What does this fold into?
Amino acid sequence: MTEYLSLSLILFTIGAVGVLVRRNAIVVFMCIELMLNATNLALVAFAHQHGNLDGQIAAFFVMVVAAAEVVVGLAIIVSIYRTRRSASVDDADLLKG
Amino acid sequence: MILTLLAATPLLGALVVTCLPRGSANASTVKAVAIGFSALTLALSLVVMARYDVESGGYQMTEKHEWIGQLGAWYSLGVNGIGLVLILLTTILVPVVLLAAWDDRLPGRRSVNSYVAWMLVLEGLAIGVFAATDAFLFYVLFEATLIPIYFLIGSYGGPQRTYAAVKFLIYNLVGGLLMLAAIVGLYVVSAKDGNASYLLSDLQNVDMSTTTERLLFCGFMAAFAIKAPLFPFHTWLPDAAASATPGTSVLMVSVIDKIGTFGMLRWCLGVFPGASEWASPVVITLAVISIVYGALCAIGQDDIRRLVAFTSVSHFGFIILGIFAFTTVSTAGSTLYMFNHGLSTAALFLVTGLMIARRGSASIGDFGGVQKVAPIMSGVLLVAGLSSLSLPGLAPFVSEFMVLAGTFTRSVPAAAVATLGIVLAALYILIMYAKVMTGPLREGLEGFRDLGSREVAALAPTLVLIVGLGFYPQPMLNVINPAVDEVISQVGQGDPPPRTPVDVSEQAKTEEGGH
Amino acid sequence: MTAFWTLAPVMVVAALGLLFARKAVHAALCLAVVMISLAVQYAALGAPFLFAVQIIVYTGAIMMLFLFVLMLVGVDTSDSLKETIAGQRLAATVVGLLFGVVAVLAIGQTVTGAVTGLGQANENGNPFGLAELLFGPYVLAFELTSALLITAALGAMVLAHRERLGARASQATLAERRMREYAETGRHPGNPPTPGVYARDNAVDLPARLPDGTSAPDSVSQVLRDRGQVRPAPGAKDPVDPADTTDTGPREVEE
Amino acid sequence: MLDLVWLLVAIPLVSGLGLLVWGKEADAWGHLVATVASAASFVLGVVAFIELAGRDADDRSVTHVLFTWIEAGPFHVDMAYHYDPLAALFVLLITGVGTLIHVYSIGYMAHDERRRRFFCFLNIFVAAMLTLVLAADYLVIFLGWEGVGLASYLLIGFWQHKPSAAAAAKKAFVVNRVGDLGMALAIMLMFAQLGTTDIASVNASIGSASTSVATAMGLLLLLGACGKSAQVPLQSWLLDAMEGPTPVSALIHAATMVTAGVYLVVRSNGIFDASEAARTAVVVVGLVTLLVGAWIGCAKDDIKKALAGSTMSQIGYMMLAAGLGPAGYAFAIFHLITHGFFKANMFLGAGSVMHAMDDDVDMRHYGALRTSLPITFATFALGYLAIIGFPGFSGFFSKDKIIEAAFGYNVWVGLGTLLGAGVTAFYMTRLMMMTFFGEKRWRDEVHPHESPLVMTIPLMVLGAASLLGGALLAGDWIVDWLEPVVGHTEHHELAIPALAMSAIIVAVVAVGATLAYLTYGRRPVADVAPLDSQVRWPVRAGRHEMYGNEINEALVVRPVQHTTRTLVFLDGRGIDGFVTGLADRLGEASQALRKPQNGLVRSYALGIFAGATLVLVALLAVTLA
Amino acid sequence: MSSTALLTATDLPDIAAPEIQYALIGPVFIILGAALVGIVLEAVLPRGKRFLPQVGVAVVGVVAALADTVWVYRSLDTVQGSSLEGRGQVALEGALSIDGPGVFTWGILLVFALLSLGLFAERRLENGLSPFTGRAADAPGSAGEAEAVEAGLEHTEVFPLMLFALSGMMLFATANDLITMFVALEVLSLPLYLLCGLARRRRLVSQEAALKYFLLGAFSSVFFLYGAALAYGFSGSFGLAEIDLAVSARTGDQPLLLAAIALIAVGMFFKIGAAPFHQWTPDVYQGAPTPVTAFMAAGTKAAAFIAFLRVFFVAFGGAQWDWRPTIWVVAIITMVLGALVSIAQTDVKRMLAYSSVAHAGFLLVGFAGAYVGSAGNEDRITSVSSILFYLSVYGVSSIGAFAIVTVVRDAGGEATHLSRWAGLGKESPFLAGCFALFMLSFAGIPLTGGFIGKWGIFSAAWSGGYWPLVVVGVLVSAVAAYFYVRVIVLMFFTDPTDAPGPTVAAPSRVTTVVIAASAAATVALGLVPGPVLDLAQHAGAFVR
It folds into this structure.
């Protein structure tokens, strides 16, 4: 069990670090997806441990949610790309202070 | 109901005044209406005074309705002697201030409607504060009074008004919020005791640990010390007074600041007697420092309004000293002092305000020899000043002496140092008077107008009261005494008996001897 | 366990690829690797249904969406690896390491409970078990996902869809306008030549040659022109300077 | 009638305040009303005196409560008067001299446009002074005490346009306040110790309190008395007070108010009887002041200041006498009354001289005025003879008694008083010589003329009183009269017979007078004073009023100014600076905290991630550790 | 495989139909239904004719849901919990807990929604157009945008989106298991991400706000999710009650539990805008269209806070001594930071955003007290009831404040720079007065609702034994008051420096009504808070 959870945590951490270091909004978003996947791994692993399917259901919901989120997220990224011709999150810094 | 009516009348007046048409053409009507309402309030307060039964004392004309049941907050009003005196002060001063403010020039194109409306709002709230017998209600009104003053200073004051208004508000808010913490604590304590209630009568019976009591006391005291203002929390006052219109200053220093000392009497001593006693050495020390410090700082001021503000710091020191000496004499003296100081400071602020308005400067250095062109003003200033330095025969003397005499029985050093204030008071008043009024007439003052009849009419009541109460303070004391006795017995501290009391029979004999 | 130990390093490496890949596409592919590996892990953990869904929904749909958008945004966009926010990378590394180490050591390594396994839960087959839950305690969540999906659709529409204003131009008006433009600006009403016409070969990057022997630069796709990948037409009278080609290409098609 | 004694106070008070409020319309007749009011008080005073005198010796005391002034808890003060032989004498002195000075002022102030106000102030003074002497309670005394202080302040500074007058007024008030501090503390001590401030009760029961209490009380009262009576160390205001119009100097700063300190000591005889130490302090203060005042009187060229120095000195005599206890109380009062006559006389005379000399006060500009101002000269001479103690004149008897009593108390004190008598003769003769004898040293534009009758009649009356005042001692009348108040006076047998004593005193006085004559009568007086550097140190010290102002300046004024400035600075920078500094720091913190909000999503994400890490680590560490 | 599944399908047991208490969750269904009707309207009505029907559907839906909420609230049964009495029941197979606090939150959310709808539907300020961009697909400043304005295009989709978000909030506040909570979180978030990017003016910052909100929101919700996963790992269930059982029984691995608490807290901290997870707040509040900001500020905070409380009181209540110190510290950091940074702000919306951060801190003070009352002393203010009341007041006041922001305009749209507000008091006493009132309420001055709110949360904290936190709280209140007061100074005491003062566009009646209603509510909650306080008080404890 520990290995699954550890893998999941490692992936989660990598995803989180990715959010911090990548500038391309799409890649940042991908990193978030990686974190979601890591979560899913943990859920499925826990489901395996506890012997009930709640974790799997949760993972299933995460996937659905992720799908919807991806649509919305990419739509936002595309629309902002259209405006600025840039997908770098660093370029969105009008709001600050 | 009469207390509610009393508090509501000026509020209603404020509403009416706000609804009246604006513009300079209507200014006189507006002011007249406002004065009318304040006069009506005064009349009502006299009715209250008349209906108050001095013999039985205690809280009278009480009203009690549940307000916020969950919090244990009641809409509970009632007056005892102390509250009554301060209500009377309020209702007397507001018409005076309004009348004296008739010719106030407001900055910008600000309307006189809101100016007088705010004053009336302030009056209503102040009456409520003095009549509240529920800690929550008291707190709410206490804090609410900040708003009218804030607007009065900020909208209608001098060039530094914004700074002064914000400083005033924040400074007082800090105190108020600390008190809020204590109010919350009171709720917790009283709720733990079974039934949450903020009623004064209930709070006096609440069981609390010594530590809790002290903590809560500190919260209340912080608010009151800032409001009063007690050294070293006084620095908002000179700024505020220097920036406010004279009328605002009067209401602020004479009425609203009294809430601080009033609160100490009613809430600190009333609800936390043990903690009050515990804190009294510190408070007395600070009060004595205030007396001397305020006086010394007043001597060094060039701005007349700041000077008056510092004199008030000194006087508030006396009031607080009297309260925390826990003797009936000093406490009754403090209560009377609140009233008297209200009158004398009002006179001082108003007459210097008129002076300043005429000169266009508040700097003492810009005056000189005014007495020659404005003898009446000079006389009024002198009387006001003398009352401020507690000349016997004028009202503040009686109260100041009572405070000192009472304190003396409790703590000789405190009284002795405080008595220094008597000398310093002479200095700050007379130096100012000498610089402003005497000597050759300063250039640029040739056209200086003496007081007009309306101004005299506005100031006369305060002067008459100052002189009258100087010789015959007993009507006030009769009202005050029972309430003070109650407070002192609450604290559990009686008057220290004279160390070698005069044989009563002997005294009787000597008195008899004359007849 | 074999599957796990085989795939785990792959997944970690692929995940790290997400951090270090210069090109977004590479990152996407790395992510796909992780996802597919995950699917296998699911299968190993007794979640065949999720295995399928992971492949179909995640890798199949979501990743494709990512790639699609990457194409839209520019398939070759690549991050410069130079960090612009001072200290960001260092801080990210430190925090990441701290989080990772703490998490793995304090959480990952401390799980004790016995592994029950899904034998019983999957008695009637994994999908049935899931269905039972889905239509039992999680029915509300399930229904709610519809709201999510509607929102997503609506969002995509709102942000991406440009509604047409006015009626579609008819053939006649279009023709009329073309002729008028020709009269006014000299813009040829006919179709422009396609690349490679009359040229040496018919590659897409070779401009057509007009009857007068000059080359027609606008016959090459705008994308290639932008990239500077237009080949000069051999023997053309005027060597194409890709830099100053102006867009005289196909008219904007009315929506 | 004795129930109506309060009218004594009320009449001048109402008249004074009424005229003040009445306003300009009263300008024409206000002074007359005021004078009549004062005179009415005098008449009432006489009637009351007669009634009192008609009573039995042990029944000559009336206490009448008008109303309760202050009552709170155990603190009870009645607005009551206590009319007894001591008060009766003072009433007569105050209203009598007061009325004369009112009359005199009608002429003296005739050309002052603010004359009405002057009379109002005079009336208020009379009322306050009467309150002081009639009070049955120390706090009421205090009321009168400060009331006369106020009147004194108003009258010294009457010519407000003169900065020097305004400053002198202020100084008088402030210095008096220092004394009042003592008085106030004394009253508080009474309340704390005895539970009452009623004079009779206090004096009756002080014996049961410890001596140290009585001493403290006595010393505090003495401080009050020093302030009001210009005794060392609070003497410095009196000479400056001569900035006031001369009638004021005569009434307040010579005849009545300044003697209030003596009255206080005598009135508090119970307290001083209970404390040897307090009495000694009074004697010391009296003796020092006596000599210092005389010294100053010798050195001053300003006629009013010379007289003021003399006043100090004479009050020193009274104070000293009062400090002698029962042996001296009556003589203190006796000298107080005779001094009231002759000093008022001389001040008014000086006023008459100044009137003639266009308000010039420098005696070096006088000379040979006896011919131009015959009436003034004659009356002044009566005063002169009285003060130096010319046998048969009132001062002879009163001073003689004090010196005798002083010798009875202590030889050194006696010698001091004797020396004082000689010096008095010296400076008074000097004054006479410089003013009325010798050569004319008038300025050119001055044409002296005798004053109008309205001014000279009071002079004559007072001159007569100076001559005849000694009659009060006839048959020890005054001693007997005051006995119910101050107790029985043991007659001391001196080592030498009384007659011999008188002879010695007269001899000493003659020596002083002769010395002065030799110095100022025989030789011409320079009409410009020699510079400070040209005179010897005793003269220099006298001119500088024994450096009293300088000492005050160094010990009090400058430290206060310095403290004030420091405090104002500290208040702004320190206390308020702390508050505003706090606000500034908050503002800076605010700006600093804005920095992390840099608009970059990745930074924000870092914040979240770091925060999450912290929360995680904290929870794990705190709980698991 | 498929063939075997088909073969065995008949052997499988029936899946019992879930029990759905339609009556109890009627309000949510009404809102969802209204949203769906809105979607249908989008499909069937021509562009120009959608606006009014959409507004109508939304308003009717919200009002109906509100009415239903009242009915639901009144019909809640009293249940005796482990220690304290609560009202309501667990519904939908344990997915939702329809209890007093939850339904109360529904009520205030619906009120917020109704008020916000007024701002959504305001058309007069933009010359007859809604405050949302006409065609989001056009790049800002492009010809297409001008064309869209010309043509009077409006995105009426905002109404269904808003209703979806609302339904998400309502479910978030009542979710009784972590999965439902997560889904509800997303249902509430996704529409808001979209709405944030739809401003008509200043579209660049609006899109930026959407991007930031989206990225950070997604980022933080993953933390929440991982926390949920760990909680599941700890207890074997997502249900709050089951987790509570495991926590109380101290079975399972403590590190898992603690990590779960930590990560769920992170997700929640983010949503409520607590420091250091607050950084999105100012940017998003400033960039988003003001009506959306208003709705978001009030609604999200309320829903998230109640969900937060529910998770922590119900599921992790047994571990409160573990998490209370963290809340304590975060509360202080949040208050201090929010209050301090507000001082330096020059943009009204940004200032209000930081102020909302500070308020999150104050709310956390009440939370940290974690006072749930005790048996036999039911009348005392608890953490839950005080927070409910605070949220009501804060929400109403902040919607009112943002409503005023929409009205103060210059040529470029809303004039949000504070210097442009100088002299507003003279320009429009009513607006300035109302804004001052809201500021005073935020500052917690008596006679406004904010005061009673502050009182409540402080009292809860004190009851929980955290009086030093109360002292810190009141001191921070003073700092916070400074910048509220500064706005009043600007409006009333300062004369505008540059020639033209703020222009107050005449809003249509809806906005005026919204402002007036918010102001009235703010005053009413200060003067006679009794009824609302009573409701909050009698909502009772969470039902599990």
About this structure: The two ends of chain D are 97 Å apart (CA to CA). Chain D has a mean pLDDT of 88.
